[in-house]
Amino acid sequence: MLRMFRSSDRSPSPSSVSTPTPPTPPSEPSASMAAGPARPLRLIYCDPQGKFVMDPEAVAALQLVKGPIGVVSVCGRARQGKSFILNQ
């Protein structure tokens, strides 16, 4: 599955490979989760078996939001400014 997202069949260097991190255990949503500065939420991740899984903590946080929600997704090759544009 991860091969679909690579631009070539060469093996990536160890510094460019990041292992997927498992989600944090679900916790009770608190009032502090709904307020505060904006931060990214990882709604979907790829588990070690290659399946897409929804992060329960992110789902709980989104269920607390009463107003409209904007979803932003950025993809592209390495070192092309994805983080820069998202930080603006």
Automatic annotation (TrEMBL):
Q: Any idea which GO molecular function terms this record carries?
A: GTP binding; GTPase activity
Asked if the keyword DNA damage belongs to this entry, the reply reads no
GB1/RHD3-type G domain residues? 66-88
Q: Which UniProt keywords apply?
A: GTP-binding, Nucleotide-binding
The reply on keyword Flavoprotein is no
Q: Where is the composition biased (Low complexity)?
A: 10-19
Domain of life, source organism: Eukaryota
**Region (Disordered) location:** 1-36
Q: InterPro entries given for it?
A: G_GB1_RHD3_dom, Guanylate-bd_N, P-loop_NTPase
* Signal peptide stretch: none
Can you tell me which family this protein belongs to? Answer: Belongs to the TRAFAC class dynamin-like GTPase superfamily. GB1/RHD3 GTPase family.
The entry's protein name is: GB1/RHD3-type G domain-containing protein
